[in-house]
């Protein structure tokens, strides 16, 4: 990126899935964002944003939360205003976790699950979860900021076999 490129600014991450079969427990998928400082970009997150929460400064909010997948198209949505994040934040990792309250459920058990990352009308990434079908949680996108060149992104699909609480601590760890 050149010094004139602002990078990505305001991004929307959306999630869709089909409801569970009639008589089965509801499938509840959740978008989670971890925010990391420039001093420790792969350490513990400075803070997390997920259902029933938002960032302390209001730059990351979950605007729609579905507990069943019922709806039209993308049922869960998170807005990330990266261009408004304080300068000491240099990395944001976004993932999806499946609530495990009714027994172990993997992405392979959830019909038509998919995620989309957009900036305005520009689609940055869109995919399903086939390559992480055995996982219960997955990272989907990483945003990084280096200097004044703004934010860049990369699509990441890294599966985990863990509960949502543990995933929140593991999702931003350095990969081997």
Q: How would you characterize the overall build of this protein?
A:
With 176 residues, the protein is mainly β. It has one helix and ten strands, in the order E-E-E-E-E-E-E-E-E-E-H. A five-stranded antiparallel beta sheet has the order 4-5-1-7-8, with no helix packed on it. The protein has a five-stranded antiparallel beta sheet with strand order 3-2-6-9-10, with helices on one face. A hairpin with a 2-residue loop joins strand 7 and strand 8 (122-128). It starts with 9 loop residues before the first strand and ends in a 6-residue tail after the last helix. The mean pLDDT is 88.
Structure characteristics:
mainly beta, five-stranded antiparallel sheet, 1 helix
Trace the largest sheet across and list its strands. 4-5-1-7-8
The biggest beta sheet, please? 5 strands, antiparallel
General shape:
globular
Tally the beta strands: 10
The residue fraction in helices comes out at under 10%
As a percent range, the share of strand residues is 35-45%
| Mean pLDDT over the residues | 88
Integer-rounded radius of gyration: 16 Å
Unreliable stretches: none
Overall SS class = mainly beta
